[in-house]
Design brief:
155 residues; alpha/beta; three-stranded mixed sheet; 5 helices; elongated
C-alpha cells in the first residue's frame, strides 16, 4: 500500500512540474491560442452582434464597441472587458454581454432614466435620479422638465 501511495505522489509531482514548466515557457498560452483558432475555423467566430434595450441612447455607440470583437474567435472575446466598456457610457446603467454560439454576440442594455435638467453656467445637462450626467440638452428640449441649479444640485 505504501509503495502505491509513494508512486502516486511521485506521479503527481511529475505532472505538477510539467504543468509549471509549460506555464513558464508559454506553452499553455500557445495551446489556448491554437484551440481558439481551431474553434474559429469550425465557425465559432463573432459574425453577428445583437443589441437590445436601447431607446434613448445612440445604438451605434454600442455597436462601435462590440464590432471591435468582430471576426474574433468566440473563446477569445473578453465579455467582462466589453461589459466594462459599455458601463462607462453615460446612458448605460447595466449591461449583459453573452455569447450565442456559434457566431453571435448578444448585448442587453439597461438604460438610465432621465430625471431632471441640471443648469450649469454655460449649458444644460440631462441627469438621472442619482445625478449622473446623461447628455447635453438644448433649452428648447428642456421646457417642461424639472430644472435644478446651484452648488450641489447634481448630488
Amino acid at each position: 500500500q505504501l509503495h502505491r501511495a509513494f508512486l502516486a505522489l511521485i506521479f503527481l509531482a511529475i505532472l505538477a512540474t510539467a504543468w509549471g514548466l509549460a506555464t513558464i515557457s508559454g506553452a499553455t498560452a500557445v495551446a489556448g491560442a491554437e484551440a481558439a483558432r481551431i474553434a474559429a475555423d469550425a465557425g465559432f467566430r463573432v459574425r453577428h452582434v445583437r443589441v437590445s434595450g436601447t431607446e434613448r441612447m445612440n445604438e451605434l455607440t454600442v455597436y462601435e464597441r462590440a464590432l471591435a470583437q468582430k471576426d474574433q474567435p468566440m473563446p477569445l472575446v473578453d465579455l467582462a472587458a466589453l461589459r466594462d466598456e459599455l458601463l462607462a457610457l453615460p446612458w448605460v446603467a447595466d449591461a449583459r454581454v453573452s455569447r450565442q454560439l456559434p457566431d453571435t454576440l448578444r448585448i442587453d442594455i439597461v438604460e438610465r432614466q432621465e430625471h431632471a435638467v441640471l443648469a450649469k453656467p454655460d449649458h444644460l445637462v440631462l441627469i438621472d435620479a442619482m445625478g449622473n450626467a446623461l447628455e447635453p440638452i438644448s433649452p428648447g428640449k428642456a421646457k417642461g422638465k424639472l430644472v435644478i441649479s446651484g452648488p450641489g444640485a447634481q448630488r
